[in-house]
Amino acid sequence: MAVTLNETPSGNRLHIGIFGKTNSGKSSFINTFSGQKVSIVADVAGTTTDPVYKPMEIYPLGPCILIDTAGFDDEGELGALRIEKTSLAAQKTELAIILFCEDEMVQELKWYNYFKKRQTPVIPVLGKADLYTQEQKEYLIQMIQKNTGETVCPVSSETGEGIRKLKELLAEKIPEGYGNRMITGNLVSKDDLVLLVMPQDIQAPKGRLILPQVQTLRELLDKRCLIMSVTTDRYPAALQTLSRPPKLIITDSQVFPYIYENKPKESMLTSFSVLFAAYKGDLSYYIEGAKAIDSLKETSHVLIAECCTHVPLKEDIGRVKIPRMLKKRFGENLQVELVSGTDFPDDLTGYDLIIQCGACMFNRKYVMYRIDRAKKQQVPVTNYGITIAHLTGILDHVALPE
């Protein structure tokens, strides 16, 4: 994924999902909550089809993605597809809002329990509060609290009642440590010299950098590191101009072997993909999963999961380079299947290995959902950078963030 330097990636924003029945007022609520016309509002059931993802800044929450979802009680064949999309949105949700609108709340409680099971903070909201008498409102709040044990926030999209209080409750519910994860972990600190080797090939169009490079560069600036960025062909010249070896060299995984063979012995080496393995996923599980590579056979079945939905380009790492490396070792009959975007099979038992990309476009909540599903089905998972480091025999020499 290529971006300009001033873009804020959606995967780094707090994902707030709004859930409820059809015509529970979700779209009106999200418009009032955000202060913008994010979603279409109509009295027709099923107005919201695919979830609407709206990035914005909301005080006191900071950068967020608001997710307006279809009703989880939608009906019919099309309704089932809408509910499936709502379930996908739930997998990405880091803070959940469930709109209650009546005393029949079986489905709302089902979804409440779903989020609690996944350890996703959830706030029950009594929507359309302006339509109830005070007695009705108190009764419904009491019923919701009895079934959830949570503080219930009554809100009105018409009057704005409760919106400010809800934002305060959401701020209190932000998962502990959220936003504190570091891409480079403890590998470098202030005044450390870091050399970034960033190939500018067809994957990174002229004038832009790919997203992991942008995010890593920004973090190193925040850490007050000394940074030098070069393309692969200028790597030797860059080393010669430095008065001291870099503390850390971060490279594209595709040129791992070349950079390793020509690095100063004092310098640590890692890759953007390896860093994102820890930042977005489960690094220890990825490393354990890489060991499964050695057990592959020509009859094995490998799934490559690419988060981006970019148009395939020449020498694409997930579609071309990694499959070529695997088939060179295990034979041309090795089955390699690729999925992209949010496409991910429910049944993973037919695969001997899953290789996940760095997932710069997804939030960690969704990546960990994929990993947890693979764990439950006892399928090993690794990622692009770990795979290439293992296949080239240098994984033991790669610096891993903590």
UniProtKB/TrEMBL annotation:
Against Pfam families, the record matches this protein to: HydF_dimer, HydF_tetramer, MMR_HSR1
Which enzyme class, named as a word?
Answer: hydrolase
Gene Ontology MF terms: GTP binding; hydrolase activity
Limits of the G domain:
15-126
* GO cellular component: a single term: cytoplasm
- PANTHER family from the xrefs? TRANSLATION INITIATION FACTOR IF-2 (PTHR42714:SF6), TRNA MODIFICATION GTPASE GTPBP3 (PTHR42714)
One Gene Ontology term from the biological process aspect of the record: tRNA methylation
Against InterPro entries, the record matches this protein to: FeFe-hyd_GTPase_HydF (IPR023873), GTP-bd (IPR006073), HydF_dimer (IPR041606), HydF_tetramer (IPR040644), P-loop_NTPase (IPR027417), Small_GTP-bd (IPR005225)
What domain of life? Bacteria
What keywords does the record list, in alphabetical order? GTP-binding, Hydrolase, Nucleotide-binding
Keyword Nucleotide-binding present in the record's keywords: the answer is: yes
UniProt-recorded name of the protein: tRNA modification GTPase MnmE
List residues of the Hydrogen maturase F dimerization domain: 184-281
Asked whether the UniProt record includes Transferase among its keywords, one would answer: no
- In the Enzyme Commission scheme, what number(s) does this protein have? 3.6.-.-
Domain (Hydrogen maturase F tetramerization): residue spans on this chain: 285-398
